[in-house]
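Final report, Chapter 2: Outcomes

The project's central promise was a pipeline that accepts a single protein chain and returns its three-dimensional structure in a standardized token representation, suitable for archiving and comparison. That pipeline is now operational. To close this chapter, we reproduce one record exactly as it appears in the project archive, with the input sequence first and the structure output second.
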Amino acid sequence: MARSGPLPIDPIAEAKRQWVAHGWTDAAAGMSAVTSIIRAQQLMFARIDAILRPFDLSFARFELLRLLGFTRTGRMPMASAIARLQVHPTSVSSTVDRLVRDGLVLREPHPIDGRAAMLVLTDAGRELVERATTALNTEMFEDPGLSAADTAELVGIIARFRKDAGDFSDPRPAPDPL
């Protein structure tokens, strides 16, 4: 049964207290950080899922459509989509299969590499992703639940973490707010 309101205590703070009480003091702050990020992701995904549900889109499907929508011609090689989305090729392939099935994306032969595929955004896919983007912008991204200063600080902290983890190298020119 789903809970009906806020918990009377912060379970992550309680977990940290327990970590310290069990002698894992050196790991307590890291456990708190990791668990907090995971919980924040769950909360954000719940909002995103609710916003995208009327469009019959998952966030993965939205991301792929949006990626194609950002290109000049609405097309890109499958390998480029996999690299930019930073998910396993099988996951991207599965997402593409569903988008193709729904008439939102076409899979065409690559014009030069016969082994590769091109992903092409259909008119229906473009129209849907524009409507979904408007909804996400209005209902989530314009107010993610953090102040503007906290949002900028959080993005900066996470960007440094991602860069240090090898997620990307310094781009030139650097986009804000890195």
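Archive annotation: Residues 12-55 form one domain.
This record, like all others produced under the grant, will remain available to the consortium after the project formally closes.
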